[in-house]
Amino acid sequence: MPRIASFPNARVTGENQLEGKSNHFIGNDPARWRTNIPRFGGVRYNQIYPGIDLLYYGAHPRQLEYDLIVSRSEETIRRNHK
Predict the structure, then answer these.
(1) Domain boundaries, given as residue ranges, for the chain
(2) I need a labelling partner for 50 at 20 to 30 A (CA). Which of 12, 21, 38, 69 fits?
């Protein structure tokens, strides 16, 4: 499975927003608390390489899967084959 830290410049977006929200109360400092966080069925890392996105998603309970999504643009194909 690709390591997330390997793509520090990729733009991250949520996919397939789920019902409900999450709250994270970390420690006693309210400044660190996060509330009303949307939940998603997947997370997309856009442009991990030119023309290639990485999508992580939950296929089954407690099972994480990923897809590499390759652009079909002619420019991307030329760039990746040089």
Answers:
(1) 8-80
(2) 38
